[in-house]
Amino acid sequence: MRQFDTGAIRDSEEGKPDYEGYLSPTVLACFGAYMLRHQTQADGSLRNGDNWQKGIPRSVYMKSGFRHFMEWWRIHRNGAAPELLNEALCALLFNVMGYLHEHLKEAGADDKLEQFQKNDWSDNTCNRPKQPPAEMIIR
After folding, report:
1. Whole-model pTM?
2. Full 3-state SS string of 7-61
């Protein structure tokens, strides 16, 4: 329990995600500018900003993400076209976020949002398993 000089009382922050600390406002601003640029469709109309949340197959995110990863790697290794680095990284971030979104949707995470907000991660939807599944272990 925390009590402030004003007399206001709040519960502890202990055990709660620190979203403000985890995210970079500079990165989010860059990503927002990237998303705005790509919100315009070929015919000039604007799609809704959350259009991607309607559902895109994970295979599409994987293929697109891999292409953008290759671009990022090429820039990293060769120093080629550093002006394209922000674009490559934002595109990769979009694909990773979309893939994770589809994965969590499939796992029923949308139905568990209230549970997560209460910091109840008991069903492991967003937690790393203690041991990878046997088929993932390379021997």
Report:
1. 0.78
2. CCEECCCCCCCCHHHHCCHHHHHHHHHHHHHCCECCCCCECCCCHHHHCCCHHHH
